[in-house]
Write a structure and sequence with these properties.
Layout (H helix, E strand, L loop, with lengths): L8 H11 L3 H11 L1 H5 L1 H6 L4 E3 L2 E5 L3 H9 L1 H12 L6 E5 L1
């Protein structure tokens, strides 16, 4: 039986992520977790946790006025998400009630 070279757990995880094309989904989850940091804790507490699928982030906002305010800030928010994640992961933001 031939021994394989010793690898760190980090190397094994990076290889597994690359082989299974999971980096895109991990970036989407990272972007969703950045919502409170980008928008602020107070506004984040008024909204539901974002859901991201195929680059489209959906956020449930119960208040119509807040939904309108966030809609007007859509472009800078997308730019900030992508800047913090380090890749073009968010294509659009959708605010629903």
């Amino acid at each position: 039986m031939e021994r394989k070279p010793i690898c760190s757990i980090g190397d094994v995880l990076r290889q597994t992520i690359a082989e299974n094309n999971m980096q895109g989904r991990l970036d989407e989850l990272k972007a969703a977790s950045l919502w409170p940091a980008i928008i602020g804790e107070h506004i984040a507490s008024l909204t539901m946790r974002p859901y991201v699928k195929n680059g489209h982030m959906t956020i449930r906002v119960p208040d119509a006025a807040l939904r309108q305010e966030l809609s007007m800030a859509r472009t800078p928010l997308i730019a900030e998400f992508n800047r913090l994640v380090g890749s073009e992961v968010i294509i659009s933001l959708r605010f629903i009630s």
